[in-house]
Amino acid sequence: MILGSVNANREAIIQIAVLGDSKQVKSIRPVIDTGYTGDLMLPREIVDELGLTLRGIQDAILGDGSLKMFEMYAGSVIWDGQVRRVEVNASETESLVGMGLLEEYKLEIEGRYGGMVKITALQ
């Protein structure tokens, strides 16, 4: 189970650890974005700090309908107590957890400031 909370900006936040290519660990507090279909979006400085390996370029359609290209990196996170391989998109935005990482998990959010965020594996 993964727990988090809703912040003053009405964002559902969790805390996870991202593993770098040289086994360094970075704790992050990403926003859960159910409109993002990828796994994990990280700011460029975190991608560089962790030394993640570039795997290619991906096209993405943003919420406003525009097309954007993102660099895609191979990465790992500690997710529900296990190391899990993920695709990481580099961006100039904040850290985001997308629906790809939530696949096979149930997301519960109490929609109020300080509300509980709970992510549990589906049975």
From TrEMBL:
<protein>
    <submittedName>
        <fullName>Clan AA aspartic protease</fullName>
    </submittedName>
</protein>
<keyword id="KW-0378">Hydrolase</keyword>
<dbReference type="GO" id="GO:0006508">
    <property type="term" value="P:proteolysis"/>
</dbReference>
<keyword id="KW-0645">Protease</keyword>
<dbReference type="GO" id="GO:0008233">
    <property type="term" value="F:peptidase activity"/>
</dbReference>
